[in-house]
Amino acid sequence: MSLEIPSKPRKPPTYTPQDTTPQDLTSSFATLTLSPHPVSLPTPSTCLAHLKLLHAIQALKLDIGYTDGLFGIWDAKAEINEIEGSGYGDRDLSHICHKCSGYVNHDLLRVAKFRKETENLIMRDWPLGGTILTPNTGLPDAAGTLPMNSAALHFPNRLIGIELRSKILDLISPQRANPTMNDVKILIENAVANKDLIRKLNNRKLTEPGYLRRDERVAIRLMMARYWENTSIFALELGGAVIRQGVFIEKMKNLDWLHSPAATQTMERLILKYTRFITILSENAMHVCVPTLDVDLAWHTAQLSPQTYFTYTTSLTGKFIDHDDKVSEDALETGFEFTSKTYEKLYGEIYSECTCWYCEVIRSRHSGPRLFGTSKSEKLNNAFHDSAAQFCPPDNSAHISTHNAESRARPSPCSPEGRTRQRIRESESTSEGEGA
């Protein structure tokens, strides 16, 4: 029996770098018609370009999650990362200052930010956050409309700059342990309970009332909202804002309008729907109007040109329309119901309709004039209900935009529950019309 000597293992093949031209990063935009100057309203091309950007951000997020997990981003298909951290980006920030040996956490940083801006108020006459733009219009007060010593919007500046300045500055000292913004809240509550102090700060006579007016209470809440849970140097807590925007990006990726065969027609419809939404919002200032995801895409795209968006909203409504990305669940539900009914009443079309690929193609093919007393929306509804659109997954449809709050799942209008709900709504509106 002979033993075979194993041959020497082969070397792996060698590869030489290929001389390839780098991919043109702008090639995917070649088919879009983009204006070099901002326009008053989004166009289908700008909305599609925005979608390309959102897809790129989502792809980058997934790449990070699959590899090194930088910035606390983990694999979207894996279980949520439960590892507790103590860094600046973590909830439980914990750090020992090497200079003073003090304990640093988010509560301390928030108080330090408020203390620093109190110093700027005293030394440089810089107003506190939330005391410049009026809540009704989103614009600054016209110069000279009200004196600084009586304007409600500037009441927090008078309160902090005159009465509470020393107490705020003393919040961070060796004698004080673990200061929080709740300490600031207590100082303000005790101060506004003093009627003589209110008269003094508002330049009122002894015979005039010494209580806070409603607009002064609103001014205090607006000011405190800029500091309450905000560690960053900005008026908005950017960490939470990025997370909420990430939810919206993921939904846009799942809908995948970018690769839909009816993408351009979808963009045209959602831009029209956005202009109608802004009209409803401007004419119903006392109600919360809630966008659907398709409206939200056009809304976000419009805000990418801030100057033209500002001009458009102020010229149309007389005020700057802010996209509030923090709305309570109850307000979302009530506002969405109001918006749906108002939209359907004004325009005779369904507000929350499915915009998956299948439904969008059917809608683009069946759009036409009213025939035999049947409206376009009714014909489209019938076409959807009798087609395979009933199998449209609810998580792949554009309904209420809830990336700004947690809300109960609303059934898809393409699902059996959603169709039943839609028929009930239609029968109720018919009964109301007959009763009128």
Automatic annotation (TrEMBL):
- What Pfam families has UniProt attached to this entry? GRDP-like
Provide the residue span(s) of the region labelled Disordered: 1-22, 395-436
Q: Where is the composition biased (Basic and acidic residues)?
A: 418-428
Q: Which InterPro entries match?
A: GRDP-like (IPR009836)
UniProt protein name: Uncharacterized protein
Species annotation: Glarea lozoyensis (strain ATCC 74030 / MF5533)
